[in-house]
Amino acid sequence: MKMYKLKKNFKGIKKGTQFYLIAESEFIGVKDFVLRTTDLAIRISINERELNNHFILLK
After folding, report:
1. Rounded to 5 degrees, what are φ and ψ at 48?
2. Can you say how many angstroms the Cα of residue 36 is from the centroid of all Cα atoms in its chain?
3. What is the rounded distance in angstroms from the CA atom of residue 24 to the CA atom of residue 13?
4. 36 near 18, Cβ under 8 Å?
5. Cα–Cα distance measured from residue 10 to residue 51, given in angstroms and rounded to the nearest whole number
6. At a CB cut-off of 8 Å and minimum separation 6, what does 52 contact?
7. 3 — phi, psi (to 5°)?
8. Tens of pLDDT along 19-33?
9. What is the rounded CA–CA span in Å between residue 24 and residue 32?
């Protein structure tokens, strides 16, 4: 399972928070990603641009 780290504050979530990539989908060239925090408390759905701008791939 891929793990991401937030590199700057985003939508009220603090920098450094770690997320698991739960789901990835693509519809007519638009990619959407669903991420959950490691404690499973927060779920966010973002697009590819937001993922690239705000997150770092850990593993």
Report:
1. -65, -40
2. 7
3. 21
4. no
5. 11
6. none
7. -125, 135
8. 999 999 999 989 999
9. 6
- What is the reported pTM? 0.86
Which residue in this structure is represented by tokens 């959407």? 32
Per-residue model confidence (pLDDT) at position 29:
86
Token pair 């590819």 is at which residue? 48
Mean pLDDT of all residues in 32-56: 96
Termini Cα distance of the chain: 8
- Alpha helix (H) residue ranges in the chain: 48-54
Nearest to 4 by CA among 24, 29, 21: 21
